[in-house]
Design brief:
about 350 residues; alpha+beta; Heat Shock Protein 90; 2 domains; five-stranded mixed beta sheet; two-stranded antiparallel ribbon; rod-shaped
Length: about 350
Amino acid sequence: MNAQQTLKKQRRDRTIRGVVIILLLFTGIQMRYSFDTSLNPFGITFIFLKVLLFSANYFWLYPKFFRSRRYGKWIIAALLAVLATTILRYSLEEMLAPVVIGKSNYYPGTSKLYYLIDNFFWLSPWILLSTVIRLIEEWIKMGRDRQVLEQQRTEAELALLKSQLNPHFLFNTLNSIYSLAYQKSEKAPDAILKLSEVMRYMLYDSEDQLVPLEKELQYLHSFVDLQKARFKENIYVDLLVEGTITTQQITPVILIAFVENAFKHGVLNDPTDPVLIQVTINGCHLQLMVQNKVNDLKKDQTGGIGLPNIYRRLELLYPGRHRLEIRNTDTHYICELSLEL
């Protein structure tokens, strides 16, 4: 929706709200005097006719005309409904009642014009009241429907993002294990065991909306160990966890993309400048800092879906509760993520 369409929609919504407020005020004023609690025949007749008019608009005129924005036809239909109700009331109270009970409701000599105007004044609020009630009901229903649709859209998008993330990780890890197997490395069995632990977490625990923070951090440890087993030469990675882990929970597989990115693009074999992965927990506040030396010779031409995926998941799952800062210097790539768990 462009800016002009948004502006038109806002103006239309304001107009509708204004009309509804006017209807409510007018209806409230009229309703104060419109209830006839007497049990005389004319009071009972009038109550029946008001309920009949209310129901006619609520169940038929509003759905048929007002909801489909045929306001002109709705006004004409509503006026005809009030006129028909007035004629019915006149037939019952001014023509039938004198024959049956010997008296009429209005004073003798009341003109037809006065009768028509008076009944329009007392009957029309019931058309307006049923219209206002239907509007309120539909606004509430639309709000609920929007919430349900938004939740369904969010859940579907998260499921898609997670389905993208798992094959992405598996593809990279299987490449590593293939390399070990090809080299007939003794690290291959341990790497397969680590992979099974990681996949168990991703396939089962990650189905939950939240997991214990301890499990997510153990997943990071297993991932780092798996990557260490991949390389024939020594690699230097420091994974540090500071703070107390108690009952904190976190969205599963939310931290891995930043760590994986360091392994994909960083210098891993420099003992003087190791990859640094630091997790600091302070109550419900978590801070992740990943720093790696940039390897200009190690460019991934295929690109990746890991980080863009995580950006979107953070927006959906931690709106207003996360801060992500990524800095590129001539020598280092630094990522800092803050989460309110």
